[in-house]
Amino acid sequence: MTTRSTRSPRRRTVVALAVVLAVLGAFIVRLVDIQVVNADDHVADSLEVALGDGQVLHGTRGAIVDASGRTLAGSILEYDCQLDPSLIAQIDDEIAAGESEARPWEEVSGDVAEITGQKVEDVRAIVTDTLAENPGSQYAVLRNGVSTETYRELMDLKTPYLACGQNPARAYPDGAVAGNLLGFVGTDGDALEGLERSYDQCLRATDGALAYQKGKDGVVIPGTRREQPAVDGGTLTLTIDRDLQWYMQQLIGEEVVDRRAEWGSIFVVDVNTGKIRAAAEYPTIDPNEPTALEGVRGSKIFEATFEPGSTFKGLTAATVVDAGGQHADSTVVASGYELFANGAFARDSFQHPAFTYTLTGVLVDSSNAGISKFSERVSPDVRYDYFRKLGIGSGSDVDFSGEETGYLHPLEDWDPQTTYNTAFGQGLTTTVPELAGAYAAIANGGIKVPLSLVESCTRADGTVVEPEKPEPTRVLKESTSVEMRKMLENVFLQSSFAPMVEIPGYRIAGKTGTGEKPDLVNGGYKRGVYFTTMLGFAPAEDPQYLVIVSLDEPKTVTSSAANGPTFQQAMTQVLKTYRVMPATSAPELLPKFG
């Protein structure tokens, strides 16, 4: 029979064993945490704390390249060089005592100054001033940002008190080409604007560290060297073509100057894929000198909104065709001024008697009154829904830093005048990319494809990551797209500006717009000040590319006709660049009047 006295020692033994096992288990868990789970963190800590001397190993920020792999932004190596004043003093003392055969600082400093381009007295002052402040100082800046060639010459001096650390710097080999898109980084390496900022996670490198201990003579102690390698940033591949971008920048720069405009842009989109092939504007920045132009930093293509004016008539026409059963030869009777039952009115840019306009004729003559009457063939809520489906007020899916979206007032806020004004592009705002996306859908069989500016990010390990994009969606019937292409082609065939935009051998379709600019001080609109737009796609029979030319406040010609010659040159260059074949069929001429 087991007695109470014999059970007690056994129980104590079991309890003691349990405590020992618990403590041992805790140590094992902590050991696994240190050596496995958080091993990288502890290695980094050991590099920083356990070893006193060392340097940061900078990774290289990734390149930004065009669709063909040509570099638009890259990194170059510069070096930040430092001296060890206390070691210089020690070696000079040893030389004076006959204990060293090294060259004295008085002599070496002359070589250093010659290599770095500094005055020898300034180089010597770096050491003397530092020692005067702190006789034991082991650190003084010699010169930052020196070239690789200078770095190599300094290292050839083989002095133990001179060290240089790598410091990658950003370079843009083509200057201002695509500068509005690329953006720039600050002197501290932080991404500040454009794609550099939007895709910083792809481009940014992860620094490593090199740590070691030195002896009193400045020599690295064997066995103390520890290195954590840096990881380079990824390569960002864009959809744009560098040469086409350059051409468009030259073209819009000349146009802005000739028209004495405040700003201008040329936007080129592949209709079938939504890929942006050029996004040029003037004025624009050179990322190598981002502060050279006051007030110019990013891209107004993505950051500016405007009232689209008559380009919106194409969206209204597509709506009444798709949802209202209208056709190219459907008619309304409209004069140069129309007063509607709700008290609203519409006035054309030219006076004319009552015409029996076809829908085609309304687009050709860009009649505000005519499109207002056609807009009555569908309810305002249907028209509002179509504008939203076509992307107005929704942005572009490009994910550009600082991108704005247009503004379409909620339907319940539409007063009688707004109900008609929105039919011809007043009382709302949009952006160049939004307008491009809407017209690309009209041209592309009614399928809206999200716009894109970035093809992919290729990580340092070779992994390719493509941006997430919405799936293409059908927003119009295919038959509506066919009908709209015919009508918009007739706009470019029958309008007064037709000779300006003709490209021999090709069929072109499109629309113009002269949007008024709001007077933010006095209310209403500015007198005689406009935002002009001309957009078109080609070939009209099989659309492949869309071009939009915009001018902000042109002064020599204030109508959208100002954009005609530049549009013609831009579209011609696009067709040449992508080897688009000429037309093999004739356009169908449609009647303006019923």
From TrEMBL:
Question: Out of the domains of life, which is the source?
Answer: Bacteria
Keyword annotations for this protein, in alphabetical order, are: Membrane
Where is it mostly found?
membrane
Give the location in the cell.
Membrane
The record places domain Penicillin-binding protein dimerisation at 59-222
| Segments forming a coiled coil | none
Penicillin-binding protein transpeptidase domain: which residues?
264-571
Query: InterPro entries from the entry?
Result: Beta-lactam/transpept, Beta-lactam/transpept-like, PBP_dimer, PBP_dimer_sf, PCN-bd_Tpept
Asked if the keyword Phosphoprotein belongs to this entry, the reply reads no
Family note? Belongs to the transpeptidase family.
Name this protein carries in UniProt: Peptidoglycan D,D-transpeptidase FtsI family protein
